[in-house]
Amino acid sequence: MLGNTIYTKEEIRNLNDDEIIKILKEYWNINYDEPIEVIGELSRNEMSSGDYHHRINNIKLIKTFSILEYPIKDLELKDSIIENGIYVPLKFDKAIKELLNNNLQLLVMCNLTLASESQRLLQNNPFLLNVISPTIRTYTNINETLLIKDSNNILIKDSIINSIKHEYKNELSNYKEEYIQEIEDKIKVIENSTNLKIEDLKNLNKEVFKQQEELKKIGKVFGNISMRIQEKENYQKELVLKIQQTEEIMAKKLDKLREFIKIHVDRLLELEFIDEEEYKNVLMINDSIDLENDVLLNFQEDLGSDKQKAISHIQAYLFNKDVIYPRYILEDFFALIQTNDLIILAGESGSGKTNLVKSFADAIGGKAKIIPVKPNWTSAEDLLGYYNPLEKKYLATPFLEAIIEAQNNPTIPYFICLDEMNLARVEYYFADFLSLLEERNELPEIKLYSEDETSHTLSELKNVLELIESTKEKYQKKNIVNFVKLLQDEEINKELTRVFGFSDKDSLIKYHTDLRRMINGILNIPSSIIFPKNVRIIGAINIDETTHYLSPKILDRAHIMKFDSPLLFNWSQITDEIEENKNKNLKIKFTIEELGLREQYPSFNKEDEFCKTIIYFTKKYFNPMGIEVGLRTIRQGLNYKKIFLEQNSDERLVINNFILHKILPKMTFDGSKKVIVENIEKDKSMLLSDFMNDLRRYVDVNSIQYESNDSIKELEHIIKNSKNNSDIVNYWA
């Protein structure tokens, strides 16, 4: 029996949540301290995008079995409980999908509560209710009383059948035919208790048979998946083999010179053509970085290759060192690291960009190399260096030296960060290198100078040693073993000056210096380098009037992570995220393969939900606004999605993050400019607002805890700023 008092929206506009709850419970004859417990039909509803949302319809109170309705006069029918049901929050979509399985509807019990204030305002319904998702459970305890009270008992019976099917479906997949008899026995028990018709049971048996057939189909699907996994493994093996072969080819380019030096290494050292460091390098007495003494957790053995656990551990490890980041930043950064794409961290000075690079590298036992960019950088030579023909030596930059160091330590992750990347125009000095990084089939090769220089140096070195040895034999002075004594011996010095064509001993000294410089340059800087698979390139940019905008070429190929000031963080919220960890002092050891190999991006698939969503946005919003989105961008998004879902199952976060990384940074246009969309003239600012509102269907704002990670909030800021700036839309403003 329901109460009699019906309210208008105006009458309850200023009431608080407790007062509204009290009104509802009085109307529905529920005690104030009792939950609003209901029974209803859980169903899956398809949206225009092809995605799904979930509602509970035909809702009745468990206590009175009355039909549920809001006590409000001026409410449209479409917004009523009878017509619209009750919305299930999107952040629980995965759990709800698992509950429904393949059923279209299912009888469930659950508790209700008031929707958020923003949702109630949006729907213009102060009584709007939401399902408390954790309370949803399948209703299988059906009794005669319940059925008799229900005026729509056919619908209830259909729900009972679905509930039974749901309860036993998983067991069917394990026991198949052997379990059919047991199911039939249980059905008979349910028939006796609920007076189900025989016809219903026959239909259920048919459904069981159908499920068996479905199992066979699933078996075939699993077979296909296994084949695809095998193909993937074979591809990875081929890729590793190709990399190894390429590395071998590159190594052979210096073999002749290195072998010659190995044979004559002692002689060259005595004659000071090489120094002690080069001596060690040639004989493979390598002073490589050794982290074996560090106590590290093994990602596979200690964490079970669980990336969620890894992120939790990294957050606790950093927190223990007074380095505090929200989980979403570490989660996003870790996923981007695995893509092998260029990552650009954007934000004001002091927002924690370079610190994230250094801290994360430390947490996984890696090395961070921070390379400051200079305002006068104008070409690739500023990034990689150049060969000086006068000195006959390659002049390396700190950036190139960091790559070579990483090459010498192939098991250690290297994060090379170009700090203040946009102090100079990025496309001037980085475009060529970025083109190299686009190579996905194999590791790119960085060509530094002509290989002829190596051959020339080898030939010249052979001639010099042969002349020195023949001169010593001629004058029977084999006991002279160093260069200084050669110069001090008048006979030897005179003869060497003659055969080399020099006029005095100073020329001989200069020639010795030049040859030594040539040997040093080639041994330390080879003519070309295979880009190491243990290196990730990261850019850090400041957003202010002293820096340059990023060009479309850079934006199209990079992932942008925007940072707010740490002062805006909710510190207590971050503290709540951090899990207790007895091993919080230990770093995690990842293999380079576990951090992600450079592979081809996933193929574009127009049937994929992510692809469908981005295509829809591109046609309706991005293209009219002048935001270019190509196949490469979508394939990058698919790659990010594949990696991100390994550590967070929320697919809606993938859309949210993709918009933040790849779309919003491209928003620089005149909002007042008119465009034609679906035969309707609109200005771009209006189109941007439409996009923001449409995006709400694809992004679950309830699962996003920080404004800086909320694409909707970012769009609101962009729109607000544009209104204050003559409709000029600029993400970077």
How does this model look, in words?
The strands form seven sheets. Strands 1, 2, 3, 4, 5 and 6 form a six-stranded antiparallel beta sheet that branches. This protein has a five-stranded parallel beta sheet with strand order 9-12-15-8-16, with helices on both faces. A hairpin with a 4-residue loop joins strand 10 (385-388) and strand 11. It is built from 28 helices and 21 strands. It is 49% helix and 14% strand.
Overall outline: elongated
CATH superfamily of the domain at 288-448 and 528-576: P-loop containing nucleotide triphosphate hydrolases
- Main sheet makeup: 6 strands, antiparallel
- What proportion strand? 5-15%
Q: Given the helix and strand composition, which structural class is it?
A: alpha/beta
Average pLDDT value? 80
Uncertain runs with pLDDT below 50, 5 residues or more?
A: 143-157
Q: Got a strand count?
A: 21
The helix count comes to 28
Radius of gyration: 35 Å
CATH architecture group name of the domain at 288-448 and 528-576 = 3-Layer(aba) Sandwich
First CA to last CA: what distance?
Answer: 59 Å
CATH class descriptor name of the domain at 288-448 and 528-576? Alpha Beta
